[in-house]
Amino acid sequence: FYVDPFCVDESTVAAHTLNPEQATIAEKQMAALIKSTLNPKRLREIQTPVGIIWGDSDKLSLVSQAWALHRRIEGSQIEVFQRCGHCPAIEKPGDFVKTVGKFLGY
Question: What is the 3-state secondary structure (H, E, C) of 39-51?
Answer without folding.
Answer: CHHHHHCCCCCCE
